[in-house]
Specification:
6 helices; two-stranded parallel sheet; globular; 9 strands; 228 residues; alpha/beta; Rossmann fold
Length: 228
């Protein structure tokens, strides 16, 4: 029976690219995002509902998170990989932007992955599965005035905390920390060649496809041209 790979923030960018690479590797997919139209298009591309389930997902909603995992287990009978990928950014500066937008970013980038892990934990223990979290290079070094950076420090710490919590269960945990990636909403005109969503997707599959006794805990990946 083909293993099952759940992705949040799956409608575009890194999430959609990872879905395509996981499908090529033989996984059945469970795809969650706020934009149902894009999810439907991706489902059609990846083989329809027999190979890819979709669900509207607000990652800050406990009910939505539980429902997506339940959909995976009810339909496919198992869950093997959970990729907590959904995230949003915000402009730098502690006096910049709308505080409500900052609040939403913190909930999405920190509370969201926590809910994803919590919702999937029991099913992943059954399969000795794998948790992945999208953090950032901004979760390794602070950026001036960046609450986004603060949320990614939290995501990086959450991955290690989850690894310790799952220790002894066979569940593996990996945090992915991209540098500059050309994805919707995150342009980087200062570099001639940034990373692509496909570059990150290949990195995710590298970690996932290791033998069960190999737990790649942390991957920091930068464009060659990125200085810091």
């Amino acid at each position: 029976m083909d293993p099952v790979f759940l992705i949040t923030g799956a409608s575009s960018g890194i999430g959609a690219a990872t879905a395509r690479h996981a499908a090529q590797a033989g996984y059945r997919l469970v795809l969650g995002a706020r934009t149902e139209e894009k999810l439907q298009q991706l489902q059609d591309e990846l083989g329809g509902p027999e190979r890819a389930l979709i669900g509207r997902l607000d990652v800050t909603s406990w009910d939505d998170q539980q429902a997506l995992v339940a959909q995976a287990v009810d339909r496919y009978g198992r869950l093997d990989v959970t990729f907590a990928n959904a995230g949003v950014g915000h402009e730098k500066g502690f006096e910049a932007g709308d505080p409500e937008d900052v609040r939403e970013m913190i909930l999405t980038n920190v509370y969201g992955p926590y809910l994803t892990i919590r919702a999937a934990a029991s099913a992943l223990r059954e399969t000795k599965g794998h948790v992945l979290i999208t953090s950032s290079i901004a979760g390794r070094r602070a950026l001036a005035g960046s609450l986004y950076s603060s949320t990614k420090f939290a995501a990086t710490g959450m991955a290690e905390a989850a690894r310790l919590d799952f220790n002894g269960t066979g569940v593996r945990v990996t945090v992915i920390e991209p540098g500059m990636v050309e994805t919707p909403g995150f342009p980087h005109p200062e570099l001639d060649a940034t990373l692509t969503a496909d570059d990150i997707a290949r990195t995710v599959l590298y970690a996932v496809l290791q033998p069960p006794h190999v737990d790649v805990n942390e991957i920091l990946i930068r464009p060659t041209a990125q200085e810091s």
